[in-house]
Design a protein that fits this description.
The protein is α+β, with helices and mostly antiparallel strands and about 375 residues long. The chain is about 20% helix and about 45% strand. It has seven helices and 25 strands. Strands 1, 2, 3, 4, 10, 11, 12 and 13 form an eight-stranded mixed sheet that branches. Strands 23-22-21-20-19-18-24-25 form an eight-stranded antiparallel sheet, covered by helices on one side. It has a five-stranded antiparallel sheet with strand order 5-6-7-8-9, covered by helices on one side. The protein is globular, with a radius of gyration of 23 Å. The N and C termini lie far apart (about 75 Å).
């Protein structure tokens, strides 16, 4: 009986190795995708000398749809007709039914399924590289690794004309000069109709006695092989009133435009004897050819003076259909998590109204050049 109990305990311990968090055991590593550093959580980790990366985060960044089946502790990813499946603790994964050996079994760290770095390229193509000196895992997507990057035919004229007029931005001057250039291009299925939209950001300026530089964001869709503009927005150094940053969040197979910002109301807030500071995140979904607000969360910090005798407060709220409702911090965090929002995914950043690009501009320029090469610029 003792022998059986010991065996059962040992078996349970082995299973828990794959499904219980061991964050303190594993040193973190940096991860880049197509030259862009991934600053959000979770980060990668080193396990038994093997670089492990978060499967959902990396695979979604590489354009795959990821599904987690909790009852079976199984992850399924699909991209371009390819299906990948693996189970926590398993030493093999399946790619279209064919086995792929894992150097280290997939396991859960801080609630995220971690897979060996090499498995990323084996599953989705592209290349991976481990830089031991800096503990950095470099991932190059199959598209970026190709000599050219495919551009949907409908969007080729748009991209070609923009590049011809604005050029390609190779260095971000953070709107401190009249530099122009296409800075960021991606193809994202915002309206979930199985056809990608064109998302593009470029630097431009308004001519006049005082040139006003800005970043321009555009979303193009297509119908019958023809592209048409569905959304555009400018981001300029507008001070605290215009303190908005841009991200793109992807969750459950749907992508959202995210606007984030902050404000300082000073003593003009809800309490005259206190200073008020706030921040917000607004999520926009593409429906019927336009972007509409589907969710928003607001955080308000109220600081009373030392002589007021009152404790500082932090308030949280959500806004749906124009109605604002008080919520708890836990609910606030849960909403952000449901959209898989991460500050590290920002495209355009803003600090006290000063804008800047949050990605590797040089690497993005190389990717855009490959797109233009593919469409015969």
């Amino acid at each position: 009986m003792k022998r059986f109990t010991s065996f059962l305990f040992a078996s349970m311990l082995m299973i828990s190795t794959w499904s219980v968090t061991h964050a303190a055991t594993y040193p973190p590593i940096e991860v880049t995708i197509d030259g862009v550093r991934q600053n959000g959580s979770p980060s990668g980790v080193l396990v038994q000398g093997t670089a492990m990366v978060p499967m959902r985060t990396i695979f979604e960044k590489l354009g795959a749809a990821v599904d987690w089946q909790a009852s079976a502790e199984t992850v399924t990813a699909k991209k371009d007709g390819t299906a990948i499946q693996l189970t926590l603790g398993g030493k093999k994964a399946l790619k279209d039914g064919k086995e792929i050996a894992l150097s280290v079994p997939a396991q859960s760290v801080n609630g995220s399924t971690m897979v060996p770095l090499r498995f990323v390229s084996e599953a989705l193509g592209g290349t991976v590289q481990w830089e031991e000196e800096t503990n950095t895992a470099h991932i190059e997507s199959a598209e970026a690794a190709a000599d050219t990057i495919a551009v949907p035919e409908a969007y080729a004229p748009v991209l070609r004309e923009l590049a011809a007029e604005k050029g390609i931005l190779t260095e971000d001057h953070e709107l401190m000069s009249d530099t122009t250039g296409v800075a960021y291009v991606d193809f994202i299925d915002f309206d979930n109709d199985l056809t990608d939209e064109l998302y593009v950001v470029y630097a431009d300026f308004e001519e006049g006695d005082y040139a006003r530089p800005f970043y321009k964001e555009e979303v193009w869709s297509s119908r019958g092989g023809e592209a048409y503009l569905v959304y555009e927005q400018e981001f300029s150094n507008g001070g605290l009133i215009d303190d908005a940053a841009r991200s793109i969040a992807t969750a459950e197979g749907r992508s959202y435009l995210v606007e984030s910002g902050s404000y300082s109301a000073g003593s003009r807030g809800r309490y005259q004897e206190a200073d008020e500071y706030g921040s917000w995140h607004v999520f926009y979904e593409m429906k019927n050819g336009s972007f509409v607000e589907v969710d928003a969360v607001i955080k308000t910090e109220i600081e009373f003076g030392e002589d007021s005798g009152r404790e500082d407060m932090v308030l949280y709220a959500s806004r749906i259909d124009g109605t604002e409702t008080d919520i708890t911090k836990q609910k606030f965090d849960a909403i952000l998590q449901s959209y898989r929002y991460r500050e590290g995914d920002r495209i355009i950043g803003s600090s006290a109204g000063a804008k800047g690009l949050e990605f590797d501009v040089e690497a993005s320029a190389g990717r855009i050049a490959k797109m233009l090469q593919g469409i015969g610029r």
